[in-house]
Amino acid sequence: MTGAVPEAGAVPEGEWPAGWTLTARAFRAAAQCGRLDLPLPGSGRTWERWMAFAELAEEELSLARLAEGHADAVAILAELGGPPPPPGSLWGVWAANPPGLSLEAALTSAGWRLRGTKQYCSGARTCTHALVTAAAPDGQRLFAVSTETLSPRPGTWPAVGMAASDTLDVRFSHVQGELLGVPGSYTNRPGFSHGGVGVAACWYGGARAVGRTLLAAAAKRDVGPHALAHLGTVDIALGTARTALHQAADEIDADPGDLGKAGPGRALRVRAIVESAATDVLGRVGRALGAGPLCHDKAHSRAVADLTVYLRQHHAERDLAALGALAVERGTDW
Predict the structure, then answer these.
(1) Using CA atoms in the order 221, 288, 57, 40, what is the torsion angle rounded to 10 degrees?
(2) Averaged pLDDT for residues 64-80
(3) How far, in Å, CA of 59 to CA of 235, rounded?
(4) What is this structure's pTM?
(5) Whole-angstrom distance, CA of residue 243 vs CA of residue 246
(6) What is the mean pLDDT of residues 29-46?
């Protein structure tokens, strides 16, 4: 059963995957104290929302991943006219569709039923509810489900990076789903682009955590001119990312319904800027400080591993090609 976080000591101490239990408790605590009661995208306070993600990511990227998923689910439910989340519920958005295993939806006499396996389900053993995409006869549809009867598959995330996000494959066996919207509603709504930039705010926060290791080292000792040059470049990269996010937040608040159709291009552009900045930060901090922090600073080494994995939600050249195609189709404001 999902949604039940093991008590301390239920998993051998020191075992790396056990970190998900601590992160799950932090996720639950953040929800209970109201830390995840965030402004909706386009509400006039989008910057506040994204900086909340960045702060969580600077603390721990896996925690930010869970928090961003919960906040995104709340925003999607509001945008598509779904029911408000039950008090105390923890939500995920499970919408990845990689090659291989798949989830299918069928309309039966008893309503919609979901069957198959969904991959990349963050909070698989922690969330009480999730929004999931599934292939229906008339296209991709979005459903709200309770996780009570789902079957997460332990061992399907053997990686070190983002291990504490509890991201597993989940089996569905004729699970009841509450339909939201029409085919394609998940990706065709304005909030899809807004949410994509929200993920970049998490990347920014994670990169900020990595950069602070170099900043702290330079404040304590003479790290030399080469390391200072790397720190200067880190400052430029993070400042550029922050500016791009801030401008995007202002633009979304000015046109929350994306009437100007700028959302897809903006999301691709800002995500690429932040991904590039974060990648630069990872490389420069490593070159400036060497193996020391990676080998002896647990928090830093975990932040590096987590950020390396999380950044791959950016689809690299595929996303850049999509941005180029939009530039050709719609023109630019260079």
Answers:
(1) 110
(2) 98
(3) 19
(4) 0.94
(5) 5
(6) 97
